[in-house]
Amino acid sequence: MKEAYLYEKLPEGGVRCQLCSHYCRIQPNRRGICHVRECRGDRLVTLVYDRVVSMQGDPIEKKPFFHFLPGTDSLSIATVGCNFRCEFCQNYSISQYPQEHNDIPGTPVTPEEIVDIAAARGFRSISYTYTEPTVFFELAYDTGVLARRRGLRNNFVSNGFMTPRAIEKMSDFLDAANIDLKSFSDEFYRKYCGGRLEPVLDSIRRLHEAGIWLEVTTLVIPGLNSEADELHRLAAFLADVDPRIPWHVSAFHPDYHMTDRPRTSIRHLEQAVTAGQEAGLRYIYFGNTPGHRSESTFCPHCGQLLVERRGFAVIKNRLVKPVCPDCRGEIDIILD
Ligand code: SF4
Description:
By secondary structure, this protein is of the alpha/beta class.
């Protein structure tokens, strides 16, 4: 049991969590929307600090990160819990576990042990992923600060619903974030995710301003966020923040509570690529379509192949520095 980092005590009793944009007001012995933070007396505590539910090595491309340490493996950790309720969640068995089972499983692993394991096995980074890392912030923070001291990098794979205060504190250790921008419709966020759009857009701007390397993923769901107009508005937003942000447009498959829709067709993904290109985005990738040419990185200046990928594997990486070997144009990528 560990006291939470970002909250305030309320004069009328209870606490207000300041970690994500739900800003839950929590009375004693009650939990927040994520079900992993509880008010005990006049303190807010995290229930997942010592409950790691997943820890394994993954290619960094699986997160996905295509422009951050390409070709390296990352120690990936998670606890249960999420502040969203996405009907199409692909990790619902752990993200929604506390709500659905009224239990918080996991193994006690200290930040020191996590960093020792990452260093001993030669990982180049630690990924806070699978569920929403914002809700296991204290574990991520303590691990991330130690990891950075040991020369390891840190990344979040997140829904971006964190508060400005949380982002400020994350800057102490976070090197990169892949933010899920699920839609450009507030109604979509409210209806299918239990969230809101504007705080996510705000986080993308703030993470970028904080100098944290940013990639963005959009799961394209047929009939929900696949219309050309929405994809154009979404791409235009990203290009306005920075056209160098890699955009991963990923294929939906029926899962969890959303089993009444077909898989995303290549045509829908191509429509997203067109929207991204017209907005001026430099790097656009397909996701969940193994073997497709749009998984590889091409020079935005001369069009030559730079990093060839198949699925999560890097087959060939021609970059030894962030410069195209053919035209000498600058490439926006963080190499190991
Ligand atoms: S992290 Fe978000 S959902 Fe969880 S208690 Fe805090 S404000 Fe509520």
